[in-house]
């Protein structure tokens, strides 16, 4: 349904928008001078990488702006063009939001990093070293020791501490069911990543067993974290895809997303962005500059750019 | 028998509870029974709402807008273009203030273009050196109040600068400096409007509750679509959240203005405007000022949430710090937020309390002494910054701006403190926590979940009927029916369970603390400052230590809610007790009552309207923490609201879930408020 807007009103609105949202100038073949908007979320590697990419764009002569955003809701903004791109789309955590936005139109897939990710339930490595539950990391071991992982509110069952439901819905409860563990195990949804890290810290303090959702590359890798080995993932094995749900997580991808106008407004920057490709080691390096060397995120990005010119210079060409 | 029942409300309540218990124990718990659970007849609603909102956001009344970047006309919905223009204005104001404080190019870009700015690299607005801003704040404090406020304001800003939080703090400040005045003005206007018209008051009241209770996450995506992402979106969400208390308190204040005062004004020949400006508002000043204080506190309480939709500054830094469990760093950031809140609050209070001296005959120098002082500070500050550029050639110019995280840090100290707390109390608290969960919380939760739907309705509507007659009963019933017909009745029960436990604890704590502290001036001031601090101190920070001590459990959630929800209970108790006239105290003492009797039979009843408003706000605050609870980990409505962010039909789900939370609040509000009004009438206070 399209209604005809009165011309004066339309002109007024157009004029208003142009003046208020600041004119973007004459278009030409080179990149537009309007800023490329890069989102900032709340984990180190993402923030450093944002500044790295921003620094790269600035070297190419573009204007860059950073905006803090919620990591789930950001895809709606990319769709609308308020945010230009996202450089860390984790398969299992953000895949849902990413594909939903893509289906509505406005978001494009700008390629995949070579870094592979794994997002899975697991235990801190010392749980295995102390042999709290013999047989781990094989999942079958879970059958015999739910009580090691019980908490006050789990009603005597062993507890999996999963991320918030916004990450993978009912994937984990379904997996428990499919593996026949549901009678002795239960899933608790934590509210966010900090809840997971606090649980790791407090379990370590007490020396008690805990099973939490985690991923790699992540800063917890340094303390030692072992993922549970579930039956291997096969295409379509998950309940949502029609399978029975008795499988673990796949080796995940790490994608880049962009607004559909990005290639048209900033062709050079977009080309560089599609070429941009980080490996697990590089992401680890960036996170370590902040988490281990205690640098400020911006300084870490500057240092990484200075140390790795050979890596990123070719992308800008 | 019937006569006795009619006369005595408590007998009616006893009867109600007896009926409720009978239903509770004798109605079979089978999923097919309508008495046990209602079928989710409103299942279709979220999707419909979702489609409607999506239609509004993306397709309604498309207009063609020229996009110069891709050299094409684009179809854009009209409504969105209008909302975007509003956000453009707000953003311009925020950026303008921000660039005075920090420098930048955005303001220049607004009047020229990105192309022009890119070509003319010199066209960059320089920010003020931090010394000038700190000095300016001190002078402002001195001009408005005196040396005490000057020292406080100056030191607070020096603290922020020295600890390397200058840049994010000024970003946050610029955002609050725009959001708070808009909210105050809006609140004042709406309050006046509601005062003028009873009908407006009736309509506005539930809307205010909804605006305050509906968790921000439920409208995060619509706000992002309509207003874009950035400081303006954060500011708009903040204004929605911060205005209601201002409206409420303006109304409360205006209502308390005695008719004699109004008449005196009229007799002196005031026009309507003069009556309002010179008579009504000054007389109602006390309550209006509490409103101003509330707006500022709420604005800063929103800093973290606002950063999720693009507000730059302290909120975002805080989230990053917490994600790595760097509590020490987060604490420093939290202190900055609190300092900004208190400085702004005290300055605005001093400004409002300042009396104009109409008879002063001052020379030019006297009249402009503060401007002259600022000029001096400005010149000295700029000179220092200029000098600094020679001293710190290689490094940062510390006299101009102490860069982010390059200042002194006390992180290690705070971290050690938290570790000590953890080491010392961990095992004691663990034992308590296990007992509390197993023997208290789980039984209560199960009791809530075990309520047949008919029993819940009987209890709630019955209470409504006893208190407010058939009308209240119907309102409460209607609100509950909506929730019962969605898919989420069980989740709503869990939310209600958490809220009820928290409200009981908070009210007891709040009224006790409030009463104890209202006994003398010093403790009153102290407790009000504590309230301000706790209200603005981002709950995210103490969530981490609380989670370390109590795990990802309902205990942690409750603690988070109680800390926040006790604030209004305490604050309004103090305000209420303070508003009891001295003469009444004396009259009581002369009649020979002791301290306790005076409290019970004079002070408490007299301050009842305030305390009732306080309990009402406690419920509102507790429900507004639902989402924070979800960030720890719950299985109530909050968790689903979080989940809606990544759902396909998420917008609809989020909005309906938010409404469910708000309706719980409205139902309780209906009963509490009606009861409070009756008590007021009974005491001859209305």
Report helical residue fraction of chain A: 25-40%
Number of strands of chain A: 10
Q: Give the number of helices of chain B.
A: 32
Q: According to CATH, what is the topology of the largest domain in chain A?
A: D-Maltodextrin-Binding Protein, domain 2
Please identify the structural class of chain B as seen in this structure.
mainly alpha
Largest sheet of chain B: 2 strands, antiparallel
Rg of chain B computed from alpha carbons, rounded to a whole number of angstroms:
27 Å
What would you give as the CATH superfamily of the largest domain in chain A?
A: Periplasmic binding protein-like II
Helical residue percent band of chain B:
over 70%
Kindly report how far apart the N and C termini of chain A lie.
46 Å
Stretches with pLDDT under 50, minimum 5 residues of chain A: 1-28
CATH superfamily of one domain in chain B: MetI-like
Average of pLDDT of chain A: 85
Class of secondary structure makeup of chain A: alpha/beta
List the helices and strands and how they pair.
The complex is a heterodimer of chains A (317) and B (686).
Chain A lengths: L6 H14 L15 E5 L3 H16 L4 E5 L5 H7 L4 E6 H14 L2 E6 L5 E7 H5 L28 E5 L2 H4 L2 H8 L6 E5 L3 H14 L4 E6 L8 E3 L26 E6 L2 H4 L1 H9 L4 H12 L5 H11 L1 H8 L1
Parallel strand pairs in A: 1-2, 6-7, 6-8
Antiparallel strand pairs in A: 3-10, 4-10, 5-8, 5-9
Helix pairs in contact in A: 2-11, 2-12, 11-12
Chain B lengths: L1 H6 L1 H18 L17 H15 L3 E6 L4 E6 H25 E2 L1 H6 L2 H6 L5 E2 L3 H15 L2 H16 L3 H31 L1 H16 L6 H8 L3 H26 L2 H9 L4 H12 L1 H17 L1 H6 L5 H10 L3 H27 L10 H4 L1 H23 L19 H39 L3 H32 L4 H29 L3 H16 L2 H12 L3 H25 L3 H9 L4 H12 L1 H17 L1 H7 L4 H8 L5 H33 L4
Antiparallel strand pairs in B: 1-2, 3-4
Helix pairs in contact in B: 2-22, 3-32, 4-9, 4-12, 7-8, 7-20, 8-18, 9-10, 9-12, 9-15, 10-12, 10-32, 11-12, 12-15, 13-14, 15-18, 17-18, 18-21, 18-24, 21-23, 21-25, 22-32, 23-24, 23-26, 23-29, 24-26, 25-26, 26-29, 26-30, 27-28, 29-32, 30-31, 31-32
């Amino acid at each position: 349904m399209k209604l005809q807007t009165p011309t004066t009103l339309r002109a007024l609105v157009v004029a208003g928008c142009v003046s208020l949202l600041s004119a973007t100038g004459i278009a030409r073949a080179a990149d537009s001078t309007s800023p490329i908007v890069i989102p900032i979320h709340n984990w180190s590697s993402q923030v450093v990488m944002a500044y790295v990419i921003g620094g790269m764009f600035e070297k190419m002569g573009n204007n860059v702006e950073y905006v803090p955003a919620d990591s789930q809701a950001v895809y709606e903004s990319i769709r609308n063009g308020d945010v230009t791109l996202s450089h860390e789309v984790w398969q299992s955590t953000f895949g849902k939001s990413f594909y939903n936005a893509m289906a509505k139109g406005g978001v494009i897939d700008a390629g995949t990093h070579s870094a592979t990710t794994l997002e899975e339930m697991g235990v801190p490595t010392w749980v295995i070293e102390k042999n709290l539950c013999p047989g781990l990391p094989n999942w079958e071991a879970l059958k015999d020791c739910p009580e090691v992982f019980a908490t006050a509110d789990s009603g005597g069952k062993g507890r999996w501490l999963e991320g918030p439901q916004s990450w993978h819905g009912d994937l984990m409860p379904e997996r428990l069911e499919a593996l026949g563990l549901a009678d002795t195990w239960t899933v608790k949804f934590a509210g966010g990543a900090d809840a997971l890290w606090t649980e790791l810290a407090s379990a370590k303090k007490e020396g008690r067993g805990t099973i939490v959702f985690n991923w790699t590359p992540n800063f917890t890798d340094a303390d030692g974290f072992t993922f549970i080995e579930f039956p291997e993932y096969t295409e379509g094995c998950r309940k949502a895809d029609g399978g029975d749900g008795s499988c673990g997580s796949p080796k995940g991808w790490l994608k880049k997303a962009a607004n559909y106008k990005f290639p048209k407004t900033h062709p050079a920057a977009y080309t560089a962005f599609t070429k941009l490709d980080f490996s697990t080691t590089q992401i680890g390096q960036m996170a370590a500059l902040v988490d281990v060397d205690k640098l400020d995120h911006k300084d870490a990005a500057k240092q990484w750019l200075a140390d790795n010119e050979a890596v990123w210079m070719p992308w800008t060409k | 028998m019937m006569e006795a029942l009619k006369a005595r409300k408590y007998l009616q309540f006893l009867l109600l509870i007896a009926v409720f218990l009978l239903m509770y124990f004798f109605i079979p718990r089978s999923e097919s029974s309508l008495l046990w659970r209602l079928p989710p007849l409103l299942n279709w609603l979220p999707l419909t709402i979702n489609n409607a909102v999506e239609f509004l956001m993306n397709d309604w009344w498309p207009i063609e807008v020229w996009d110069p970047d891709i050299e094409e006309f684009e179809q854009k919905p009209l409504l969105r273009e209008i909302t975007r223009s509003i956000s453009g204005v707000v953003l311009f104001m925020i950026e303008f203030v921000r660039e005075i404080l920090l420098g930048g190019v955005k303001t220049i870009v607004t009047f020229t273009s990105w192309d022009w700015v890119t070509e003319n690299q010199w066209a960059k607005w320089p920010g003020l050196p931090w010394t000038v801003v700190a000095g300016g704040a001190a002078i402002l404090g001195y001009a408005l109040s005196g040396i005490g406020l000057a020292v406080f304001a100056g030191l607070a800003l020096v603290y922020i600068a020295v600890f390397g939080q200058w840049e994010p703090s000024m970003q946050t400040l610029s955002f609050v400096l725009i959001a708070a005045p808009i909210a105050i003005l809006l609140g004042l206007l709406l309050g006046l409007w509601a005062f003028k018209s009873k009908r407006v008051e009736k309509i506005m009241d539930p809307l205010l509750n909804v605006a305050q209770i509906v968790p921000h996450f439920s409208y995060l995506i619509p706000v992002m679509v309509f207003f874009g992402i950035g400081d303006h979106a954060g500011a708009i969400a903040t204004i929605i959240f911060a205005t209601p208390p201002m409206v409420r308190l303006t109304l409360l204040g205006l209502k308390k203005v005695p008719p004699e005062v109004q008449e005196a004004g009229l007799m002196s020949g005031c026009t309507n405007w003069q009556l309002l400006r010179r008579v009504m508002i000054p007389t109602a000043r006390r309550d209006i000022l509490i409103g101003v204080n509330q707006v500022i506190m709420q604005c800063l309480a929103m800093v973290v949430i606002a950063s999720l939709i693009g507000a730059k500054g302290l909120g975002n830094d805080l989230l990053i710090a917490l994600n790595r469990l760097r509590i020490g760093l987060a604490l420093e950031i939290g202190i900055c937020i609190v300092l900004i809140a208190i400085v702004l609050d005290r300055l605005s209070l001093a400004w409002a309390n300042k009396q104009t001296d109409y008879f002063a005959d001052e020379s030019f120098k006297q009249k402009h002494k503060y401007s002259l002082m600022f000029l001096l500070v400005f010149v000295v500050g700029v000179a220092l910054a200029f000098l600094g550029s020679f001293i710190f050639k290689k490094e940062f110019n510390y006299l101009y701006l102490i860069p982010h995280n390059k200042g002194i840090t006390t992180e290690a100290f705070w971290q050690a403190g938290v570790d000590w707390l953890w080491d010392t109390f961990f095992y004691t608290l663990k034992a308590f926590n296990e007992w509390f969960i197993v023997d208290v919380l789980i039984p209560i939760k199960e009791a809530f979940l075990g309520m047949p739907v008919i029993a819940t309705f009987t209890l709630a509507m019955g209470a409504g009927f006893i208190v407010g007659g058939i009308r209240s009963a119907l309102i409460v019933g209607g609100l509950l029916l909506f929730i019962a017909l969605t898919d989420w009745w069980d989740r709503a029960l869990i939310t209600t369970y958490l809220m009820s436990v928290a409200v009981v604890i908070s009210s007891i704590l709040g009224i006790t603390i409030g009463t104890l502290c209202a006994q003398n001036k010093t403790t009153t001031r102290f407790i009000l400052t504590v309230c301000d601090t706790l209200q603005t101190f981002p709950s995210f920070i103490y969530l981490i230590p609380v989670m370390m001590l109590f795990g990802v459990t309902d205990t942690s959630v409750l603690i988070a809610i109680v800390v926040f929800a006790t604030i209004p209970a305490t604050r309004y108790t103090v305000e209420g007790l303070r508003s009891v006239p001295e003469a009444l105290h004396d009259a009581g003492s002369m009649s020979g009552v002791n301290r306790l009797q005076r409290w019970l039979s004079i002070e408490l009843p007299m301050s009842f309207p305030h305390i009732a408003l306080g309990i009402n706000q406690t419920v509102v605050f507790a429900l507004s923490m639902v989402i924070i609870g979800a960030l720890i980990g719950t299985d109530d409505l909050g968790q689903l609201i979080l989940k809606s962010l990544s759902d396909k039909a998420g917008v609809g789900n989020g909005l309906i879930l938010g409404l469910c939370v708000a309706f719980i609040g409205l139902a309780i509000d209906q009963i509490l408020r009606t009861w409070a009004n009756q008590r007021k009438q009974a005491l001859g206070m209305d």
